[in-house]
Predict the structure.
Amino acid sequence: MKKLKKKTLAKLIASLALVLVLAAGSTSVSHADAPYKTYTVDGYGSVTETQTAYLPYETITKIGTEALTAPTDFTLLKDGTMYILDSGAGRVVVSDAQCNLITTIGEGVIVGARGMYVTEDKTVYVADRDGGQILVFDSEGTLIHTYKKPTEAMYGETQDFLPLKIVVNSSGTMYVICESNTNGIVEISPVEDGTFLGYFGTNATKANIWTIIWRAVLTDAQRAKMMSNLPATPDNMAIDEKGVIYTITRGEKLEAVKRLNIAGVNMMEIERYPEVPAAVASGNHDNVFVATTTGFIYEYNNEGDLLFMFGGSDDGKQRIGLSTKVEAIQIGTDDKIYVLDSEKAQIQVYEPTEFTNYLHQALYLFSKGRYEESKEPLSEILEMNSLFTYANMAMGKALYKEGDYEGALKYAKLSKDMDGYSDAFWEIRNVWLKHNLTAMVLIILAFVLMIQVIKHVDKKKHILDKPRAVLNRFREKKLVSELRYGFYFIRHPIDGCYGIKREGRVSLYSTNILFALTIAFYVINKYFCGFLTKTVREGKFDILSDVGLILIAAVLVVGCNYLMCTINDGEGKLRHIYSSFVYSFVPYLILMPVVFVLSHIVSNNEIFFVQFGTFAITVWVAVLLFVSIQEINNYTVKETIKIIFLTLFTILIVCLLIFIIYVLWSQVFDFIQSICGEVVYKIGS
């Protein structure tokens, strides 16, 4: 009995230990601690979920015992000192790295500030919007300068001076965003108590083609009543250690985030832009962070590629890591992210995960040209996520610098890095040509020589008479003759249409064969063409949908064209129109294999040949289709153009009707389903 009790106790202890181990192991999973998902962009431009990049670390709600009223901006220095502009209380709150209150600045002086900047020597610049001034305090909190509206005529006599945000470079030059000033960022030198230097980084005006046409036809009086087409005013900005200025502007889409050089020219292009950007900050690894008003945080590299997107808006549950109204963002020297939420009057702090630390290390090494060293952190990243696009792209470039072109090609393909793939392929092709060019030339010469010898022998001995006779009999077969008619049709389309319409030179059987070949060539080229010309994701096949769409399009085009031609005294029968349309695609069947082969052997430097070949096929087919409609129906050029537009309009109407019928049928089906469900419920009850 005692042994049984001991065994039972041992089992209980073992079970308890196992539970504790599992519990300890589960706490190491970082994903469970984040109330949001993290996303990145793959090489195809699609947003995909990835590892958690940053975890919520803490929430700062008080500085010492002081609660914040309505904070709108803050600055974080390298030593951890934090300056918070508490606009609701008209002061700047200063804390140390442990959030202990050091002092407050500007009480009784600041009227209604919205922005602030602090230099490394702890000089505080406050953009006092309601006071129409820039206030400068020294490290002790003493007011040492006040800058009012510039008096230079270039600033604009009627232009108000309502500073919202401010940054200062190492020479003391101030860059100020002013409310309603669409001329750009105001640049002020501290020389002579403030000298206006001009406007910097002005956003471009935008107008679509319809606005331009509309304004052209209006009178001066009508144009005066229209809304002026003025550039947008930047919403916020930041400056890095090199003096490069970053700006964000809502509604600018691809230029919502800018990285401006000394001339005010944007050096960064982004594709995945934040919808409502609120703040921007430069990171420690040539990266850029943008926070949206709704609490999402975007991290880009210095070229504008999106690395991570995470965070989100708080739904009222007060979960750490989610915000309500973001006003500012700062990056610590330890890569922690600090996000100021004005509505909650708090600062959210995020810390990078191991995955992100490796990425930042790789970013830094790669940006400095230390490719060999960057491979180690890149390998760690790829072990955690082998499909992370940026890591694959950077690894490919690192291998390319080392001369490992095969490896570079592999990683460029994984990351959909077209330029990297082209460069690596160019080098691989060069190496192949060096080793095989002589053999290729000899083979071609031998082949040409062999043909000449065969011709010479045939001329004397007639050795090819029997094969020639067999070939002629084969060419005279009805189906073969009909298929060969396509070569005649594309060279003489007018006579070709006459042969289809009057002489019966083609049949539905041969037409269907050519149509099936056209579909097959399209599918093969779409999924198996060269990497540089491929538009679909590697390994993704949707052949049935492609074939179905082509068949539906063919039925719509041929059917609607026949309907319009019949109504408008066209002479063509349905089978004539169908056959002439299909035979018009013979250039596609002839040239597309050539284009397909070229797509596998060209780099970006020669891709023009593929593009030109595709363009030539498109133009040739379009001309043949136009001639077919004209000749089959005996139309003039004007009547043919009219029929084409009517056909397109009819296709649009048919598609609209199909959509309406689909919606109505869906509603009827849902109604019947709900009635059946109700009947079953009544019977069951």
User: Anything to note?
Assistant: Residues 466 and 472 are 10 Å apart (CA to CA). Residues 637-684 form the longest helix (48 residues).
